[in-house]
């Protein structure tokens, strides 16, 4: 039945694109409480109906998020080679990443991502392709809280630790099958960002899980 298919899809998550490079190492595919009701096989409207213009509705089993507001970032000065410029860039990258996961459009997020951060760029492409073929993502929203101040050993490449807050990420295929990642283990949510100014702007080079 459909439930068995969902379980099979969840079990095979390791062979599909993980929601992000940072989650792939620790995320376990499992059935999510919020997805206990089988998603609709045809992409409809979240909340069960078309939302009025300007009314934001998060994604759910019925369809993708509606009227996702575009982040008003980056702030002025984000490209300055300063710690404040770095903070503004990282904030913009996170907010536009959350926009991308809800819309399938990572155009702006890519502007802050180094071309060498291939795992992140591949994750973007995977989600964009999911939306293009009629699927969508439920949740997947990330929040990062800085842990201390940025540091550098050479004055060029900077590192910054942050706590990653997320609950779950569910990829819904147009067939109705879905794959879920749940953040049940909160002990491995500290990540280290690597950033560098390329002469014009800051770029996120990598993001990896580290010990607290």
- Determine the strand fraction and express it as a percent band: 15-25%
Care to count the β-strands? 9
- Count up the helices: 5
| Main sheet specs | 5 strands, antiparallel
Concise synopsis of the structure shown:
With 212 residues, the chain is of the alpha+beta class.
Give me the secondary-structure topology.
Blueprint: H1 2-11, H2 21-24, E1 28-29, H3 83-103, H4 107-110, H5 118-132, E2 136-139, E3 143-146, E4 151-152, E5 157-165, E6 168-172, E7 178-182, E8 190-197, E9 202-209
Antiparallel strand pairs: 1-7, 2-6, 3-5, 4-5, 5-8, 6-7, 8-9
What do these coordinates show?
This protein has 212 residues and is α+β, with helices and mostly antiparallel strands. It has one domain (2-209). The chain contains 5 helices and 9 strands; from the N terminus they run H-H-E-H-H-H-E-E-E-E-E-E-E-E. Strands 3, 4, 5, 8 and 9 form a 5-stranded antiparallel β-sheet that branches. The longest helix is centred in the middle third of the chain and has 21 residues, at 83-103. The model is unreliable at 1-36 (pLDDT under 50).
Comma- or semicolon-separated keywords:
single chain, 212 residues, alpha+beta, five-stranded antiparallel sheet, four-stranded antiparallel sheet, 5 helices, 25% helix, globular, disordered N terminus
């Amino acid at each position: 039945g459909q439930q068995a298919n969902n379980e099979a899809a969840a079990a095979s998550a390791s062979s599909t694109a993980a929601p992000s490079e940072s989650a792939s190492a620790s995320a376990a595919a499992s059935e999510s409480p919020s997805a206990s009701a089988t998603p609709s096989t045809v992409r409809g409207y979240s909340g069960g109906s078309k939302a009025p213009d300007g009314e934001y509705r998060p994604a759910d089993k019925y369809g993708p998020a509606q009227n996702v507001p575009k982040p008003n970032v980056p702030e002025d000065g984000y490209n300055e080679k300063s710690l404040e410029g770095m903070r503004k860039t990282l904030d913009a990258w996170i907010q536009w990443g959350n926009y991308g996961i809800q819309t399938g459009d990572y155009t702006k997020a890519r502007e802050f991502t180094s071309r060498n951060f291939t795992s992140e760029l591949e994750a973007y492409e995977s989600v964009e392709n999911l939306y293009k073929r009629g699927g969508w993502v439920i949740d997947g929203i990330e929040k990062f809280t800085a842990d201390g101040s940025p540091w550098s050993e050479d004055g060029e490449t900077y590192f910054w630790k942050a706590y990653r807050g997320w609950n779950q990420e569910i990829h819904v295929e147009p067939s109705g099958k879905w794959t879920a990642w749940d953040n049940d283990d909160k002990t491995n949510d500290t990540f280290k960002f690597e950033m560098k100014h390329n002469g014009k702007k800051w770029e996120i080079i990598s993001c990896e899980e580290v010990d607290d």
